[in-house]
Write a structure and sequence with these properties.
By secondary structure, the protein is an alpha+beta fold. The protein is built from 13 helices and 17 strands. The protein has 2 domains: 92 residues, OB fold (Dihydrolipoamide Acetyltransferase, E2P); 301 residues, Bira Bifunctional Protein, Domain 2 (BirA Bifunctional Protein, domain 2). Helix 4 crosses helix 6 and helix 4 crosses helix 13. The structure holds 4-amino-1,4-dioxobutan-2-aminium adenosine-5'-monophosphate and magnesium ion.
């Protein structure tokens, strides 16, 4: 970059100076001998005012010819103007087109979702998409900071695995040199051994589920962050999960106001989520749902509709615990007072965004876990190493997983998870 090349985000720091920018034409308006160019460089967008009288003939020709999404360079004086978006404008002294763009498929007019999804690689440039992915970036950084500040160690779990973690129905199978292997559904089983090495650990990466459900809340590839903590029991786990969500919401409110404005997000909804969350048991949740006319019976899993009804009732994230063990994963610790129940928790986001966190205390007794693995008909051979964790210095421990896209969808207010990840993978959709 040449000396005075600055990014649009930092233009304000260069008031009355001449600067150079490189970027793309976001839009253009011309009125006689003045051109108003919206220039985007990735860090922001600025209006550049080009006046024929102040430009060379070539530069003015380029102003006239430039099309949306052309690659451009521009020089100009930074003028502070509080009325302008970002508080500055650029008075152009030189302008040139580096790559004249043919008709760009995505225009300010309305496009159908199928069309936009086919052009996801170009759709990324749109202001709402950029805002949503910028919030995602802040959330991901917030996740890493949260755990780093609390002295957790990052343990990257493998993506190619020999066995299932969250049930066999949603596994993507692949060939591993002649043997079957599966894309990871959760890093949890690989985190548990690491607590004996590091105490507090987390993993953060893509996870895969061959979900046949075509809903706005399901992706087949999504990012999950999972902490796991030695000697942490169920009460402490609930507190950790709540503090985690509150911290992330607070961070988004503090640092993403510009993006939330682009997305027209109702901030008041998010502010409520920095107060303590209501906590109810599964049994209580079922009672409440029945009162509200839902058809659920005790023992059944909560459906998407049930989650929405609960979230509406509390108008805040709600923590549900003590589920029937029969509907939860094999590794969950039973409640000592009522072993029919599992020490599992779900956090349901408000406004219909559904379950954002699932977690539990884990069974730490070797023989009991062995019994559960057999009851669930899981291949013993594949879980030998997992049982070792209980064989050599076991301890009570707990953890949870949060789906990043569900959380970002809630923060941004976008209805469908597909707009919270750069390249969504969904049922029958893998292009581009
Ligand atoms: O509740 P789940 O299945 O929990 C686990 O995988 C545990 N092993 C986590 C743990 O205890 N370490 O998934 C956790 C979260 C859900 O609450 C949801 O936010 C997200 O992962 N999730 C999905 N997000 C997008 N698309 C899907 N198909 C998802 N399935 C789960
Ligand atoms: Mg779950």
């Amino acid at each position: 970059m040449s000396e005075n090349t600055v990014s649009i985000r930092h233009l304000k720091e260069h008031a009355d100076q001449v600067v150079h920018l490189k970027g793309w034409l976001n839009g253009k308006r011309r009125s006689g001998k003045i051109g108003f160019l919206q220039i985007r460089d990735g860090s922001g967008t600025v209006q550049a005012v080009a006046s024929r009288a102040e430009l060379s003939e070539q530069a003015w020709e380029d102003v006239k010819a430039v099309t949306q999404e052309s690659t451009v360079h521009v020089s100009g004086t930074v003028k502070v103007d509080e009325r302008a978006p970002g508080g500055v404008e650029l008075h152009v002294t030189d302008f040139g087109v580096d790559d004249l763009c043919g008709e760009f498929p995505i225009t300010p007019k309305e496009h159908g979702t199928a069309f936009l999804m086919e052009h996801r690689h170009l759709w990324l440039r749109s202001s709402r998409q950029r805002a949503a992915l910028a919030v995602r970036n802040e959330v991901c950084q917030g996740i890493r900071d949260f755990f780093y500040e609390r002295e957790f160690t990052l343990i990257d779990s493998p993506i190619l695995t020999p066995a299932a973690c969250e049930g066999t129905s949603t596994l993507f199978e692949t060939d591993y040199f002649g043997d079957p292997a599966f894309l990871s559904q959760s890093g949890q089983l690989y985190l548990e051994p690491a607590i004996s090495a590091f105490g507090k650990v987390y993993c953060f990466g893509p996870t895969f589920r061959a979900e046949k459900s075509k809903t706005r809340r399901h992706l087949t590839e999504f990012w999950m962050v999972e902490p796991e903590v030695a000697f942490l029991e169920f009460g402490g786990l609930c507190d950790l999960a709540e503090e985690f969500i509150q911290t992330l919401v607070g961070r988004v409110l503090e640092r993403c106001s510009e993006h939330l404005e682009v997305l027209e997000r109702d901030i008041a909804q998010l502010e409520k989520s920095t107060h303590p969350f209501p906590r109810i048991t599964y049994t209580k949740a079922v009672e409440l749902l029945k009162e509200k006319g839902q058809s659920i019976e005790w023992g059944e899993d909560l459906g998407g509709e049930d989650e929405t009804v609960l979230a509406e009732h509390f108008d805040q994230p709600v923590l549900i615990s003590h589920f029937p063990a029969a509907i939860k994963a094999f590794y969950m610790e039973p409640d000592a007072d009522d072993p029919k129940l599992a020490l599992g928790l779900d956090i349901i986001a408000p406004e219909g965004y559904g379950e954002i966190i699932g977690g539990s205390q884990r069974i730490h007794d070797h023989d009991f876990l062995l019994e559960r693995i057999k009851e669930h008909d899981l291949p013993l051979e594949a879980f030998k190493w997992y049982l070792d964790v209980r064989k050599y210095g076991t301890c009570p421990h707990s953890g949870f997983g949060m789906g990043v896209e569900r959380f970002v969808a809630w923060m941004t207010g976008v209805k469908h998870l597909r707009e919270t990840i750069p390249y969504p993978r969904m049922l029958y959709k893998i292009y581009p």
